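Progress report, Aim 2. The chain analyzed during this reporting quarter is listed below.
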Amino acid sequence: MQENNLSRTPADLSWIRRLDPRTKLFLLVASFVMVLLPESPQAVALATLLVLAHVTLARAWRALLPIRWLLVPLALFSLGVWSWMAQGPSLLFWRVSRESLAFGAANFLKLSTMMVAGLTLLATTPAEELFLGLVRLRLPYAGAFAFALALRWVPEVFATAMRVKEAQEARGLSWEGGSPLDRLKRHLPLLAPIFLLTLRRSQCMAWALEARGFQMSPQRTYLLELRMSARDWLALGVAGLILAGFIYMHLLHWDRIPGLRV
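Predicted structure tokens for the chain:
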């Protein structure tokens, strides 16, 4: 069972994990801006290294292991699609040029880095803290609650899918053998029971919220309390300076690929 940050003492948590959730949300937005602004793979790689340093400080490498298998198809997709769509003067073969290949590599780094940054936030911030942080940032309570509930719901849907699959295996359905298309066809009948079970659980959740008077009163109390500390302001200051550097580099066109046409 995954250990929750709330059950640990502050000494057991990394420096990043002890940050205020509002600070972590700013770091996430700053990382997105840093990787989306540049065009050249060198500048994007610099932003990627900074995000990986953030992952190291957060001790969140274990949470990224499930997505390692997505990197290869993501790289093939990015290099294939963007290298074909973009154009440059240094032609290598067919429509692919040195500039378009660099553009494809930069887009792969952008997608993978944003995915890593988002998973790092989820791995280092409990849903309760993230929900309260969104409320403190003036997000409507219902919207913040729906977002936190969605984070809770993803493991539930996955567990429902595994239970349905195990029930079908107990009835003699074999998932192995045949071509990949045949195995895919055998998985399609799982969608109906998964959808129905998820819909039933959603209805029960709606009834439970209604029975507890959800949104009956605008005044709410919270179990957790958020306070910005010195480490939060330090993290915000460092992130702000790094972000300003990337924006300055972008305004001076230092992060462009010469000759690239998209």
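Strands lie at 91-93, 96-97. The chain has two domains: 15-133+226-251, 140-211. These observations will guide the mutagenesis work planned for the next reporting period.
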